[in-house]
Amino acid sequence: MTDLSLHIPDTGPASDEAGLRDYWQLLKPRLMSLSVFTALVGLVIAPGGVHPFLGATSILWIALGAGASGALNMWFDADIDRVMKRTRSRPIPSGRVEPSDALALGLFLSVLSVVMLGLTANWVAAFWLAFTIFFYTVIYSMWLKRTTSWNTVIGGLAGAFPPMIGWAAATGSTPLDAWLLVALIFMWTPPHFWALALFVRMDYHVARIPMLTVTHGRDATRRQAFLYAVGLAVVSLATALSGIGGPLTLAVAVVLNGVFLKGAWDMWRRTDAEADADGHAAEKALFKWSLVYLFVHFAVFVVEAALHPYGGW
């Protein structure tokens, strides 16, 4: 098993004075936006409703918690980011932000977001936010990412918790339906990231990150992506038949999963030579569709909740 030295490189003094944009980039705004969106859906569709001000402040603290995770991840992964083509321009490896500043920002936002979510919403939601930050920073970034090809599967839990945190912020509880939202993102994460890993695989080779493409090869990665796509379809249909689903969710889920499975199947049946020849067209197509898939799937939960009361089946 490939292992990496766990250290922060000495990037030297910052090449330019860091600006607000650099600190914003530390928070991984794209990842934050996904967390905010899914957390908002969980909060909105939870039974009983929530006061708009409480809902808005809860989403703010969840967003800051997601940003804290991003800053701590960038602090710890500075050595990896420095050698990967798609990450070497990030604030720390480029020298615009000192690692110690990123660490301080991440810790400050972690404490602030968890405490404020507990005080303004409830401590159930605050506990799961704290656990998510810990899981992403320690379990995924510091351990799984550098030691095992299971990093994408197990580590995907960190990105799967936000809708349940939103639900907990509204209700103070985490019932089965909230966990189904977690399961949906959990099963979606491997094929989403493995499709990406297939067309940026050299980055992971250079950085010696044990992604499945590095440890088991591209054929195994395509096969596993398809199998997880099948599992994703099962979870998707389960959510459609649960209290958060309904006829519209079921119809949309059938279409979304049909396209997803077709894309994963097409990707699996290709050879490495075919993928190289067309610039990984199937892999890129599946990656892009996976983003559409998650957005539409969660959006339809909101529409379904507006059409009938919770548990309308």
Strand content of the residues, in percent?
under 5%
Low-confidence stretches: 1-15
Nearest-integer average pLDDT: 92
CATH class of the largest domain: Mainly Alpha
**What's the tally of helices?**
16
Please describe the biggest sheet, giving its number of strands, its sense, and whether it closes into a barrel: none
Number of strands: 0
Through-space gap between termini: 48 Å
List the domain count as a whole number: 2
Backbone structural class: mainly alpha
**Helix coverage percent:** over 70%
N to C succession of SSEs: HHHHHHHHHHHHHHHH
Based on the structure given, which CATH architecture of the largest domain is correct? Orthogonal Bundle
Shape: flat
What fold name goes in the CATH topology slot of the largest domain?
Answer: Tetracycline Repressor, domain 2
Radius of gyration: 20 Å
GO cellular component, one term: plasma membrane
Protein name: Protoheme IX farnesyltransferase
Family: Belongs to the UbiA prenyltransferase family. Protoheme IX farnesyltransferase subfamily.
Function: Converts heme B (protoheme IX) to heme O by substitution of the vinyl group on carbon 2 of heme B porphyrin ring with a hydroxyethyl farnesyl side group.
